Write the structure tokens for this entry.
Amino acid sequence: MVEDRDLIERLRKGDLRAFEEVYHRYGSFVYSVAYNVLGNPSEAEDLAQEVFLRLYRKVKGFMFRSSLKTYIYRATVNTALNYLRRRKDCGIKEETLKADDRPGERWEDKELVREILRRLSPETRLILVLREVEGLSYEEIGRALGMGVNTVKSRLNRAREEFRKQGRILLKQEGLWTG
Amino acid sequence: MDRIDRLYEGMKGLKESPPKGLWGVILKRALEEERRRVVPGWRGLLLRGGWGVVLACTLVVMVGAIRYYTHYKVSREAIYCLYDYDAVIQNPLAGLEWEDDLDDGTGIDS
């Protein structure tokens, strides 16, 4: 497998095959994080385009202070947070989660999980997505969010608690709570 | 394991794959940017600047037009102040009649 450093060198020379390779390596991560944090496929596509085009524009100035992987993680996280800040409610767009207007219909577990995530703050949602959906290590999350490993661990603990709390509230609201 | 635990574990199944056409869109936009970067002259400037350049040109033209108009208007009003403009319009040579009486020193009437 070609090293990220080699890919960057080729990309600097304008090699579009290298750009494609970068996309195939990280496109799935970028899109998945965007989709799960923003909750909207069209916004997720816009975000993915923005992240890769920014890399394409800035690659000539890439100083290798961090790895390409970390650069992509950080760019994805920062762009997602910017999108959420621009959106006033800071939540997942309603049109993607319409279980509320289907009375009597059973929630799928996947929809329930998405609904619980929607109820969390953007930062809490983001850290859970990075850890539980994308399976990033504490160190990788720390580098992406610009914080130490211990901070990541304590934030994740709080995020898990918040997820459980919101989960209980939702299940009770929907009459699905049996605990 | 209770329901909440199962839902928490369910997060692992939320991984999404990008739509098939996404790479094509990114590549197209990257190539478009590259093209804009290499086109020289006015065309390149327009391609790079887009509406910004158009807006800047419009502003320059507007400011020029306002300045020209105010200058012209001021000049015209200055003429109105100096002359009886209607009389000048009716008889443009009226102000030049005095030249007929001019004595050029030759002793011959012109």
User: Anything to note?
Assistant: The CA atoms of residues 30 and 77 of chain B lie 57 Å apart. The helical segments of chain B are 3-10, 22-38, 41-49, 51-82, 85-90. Chain B has one domain: 21-99. Residues 21-99 of chain B form one domain.
